[in-house]
């Protein structure tokens, strides 16, 4: 899969269509994320992100850093890797704000933001993180 470098969207229309269908024509799920720095009104670049599947133990599924658009370069899960279940996304926000030179308290009020959520295997889930040094929110995006 290729990513569009000239667009604020990480995928072009052909990529989106290919990702949404399996070889049998059924829908294929995927998980994407992005981070917006609401204190500065910009995408949060270079934030370390980890995705864990939860079950009998925590299983690391992906470890990436956000790009200049605040997005993971591609889906964190897709195709056969996208399994129904409960997951956690970890965002290293404390390190991001420290690198930005923004005072976030000593110690930082927010260090690692953890979002726990559950998914079905055949749907697209987009999990945005809107964050400042003192607060965050998320929702199921499109």
């Amino acid at each position: 899969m290729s990513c569009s470098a000239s667009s604020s969207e990480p995928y072009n229309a052909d990529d989106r269509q290919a990702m949404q269908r399996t070889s049998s024509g059924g829908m294929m799920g995927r998980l994407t994320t992005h981070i917006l720095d609401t204190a500065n009104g910009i995408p949060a670049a270079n934030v370390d992100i980890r995705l864990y599947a939860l079950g009998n133990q925590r299983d690391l599924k992906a470890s990436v850093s956000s790009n200049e658009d605040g997005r993971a370069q591609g889906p964190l899960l897709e195709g056969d890797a996208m399994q129904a279940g409960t997951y956690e996304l970890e965002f290293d926000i404390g390190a991001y704000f420290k690198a930005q030179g923004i005072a976030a308290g000593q110690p930082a009020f927010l260090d690692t933001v953890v979002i726990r959520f559950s998914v079905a295997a055949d749907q697209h889930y987009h999990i945005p993180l809107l964050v400042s040094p003192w607060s965050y929110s998320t929702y199921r995006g499109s």
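The chain is about 10% helix and 40% strand. The chain has one domain: 29-138.
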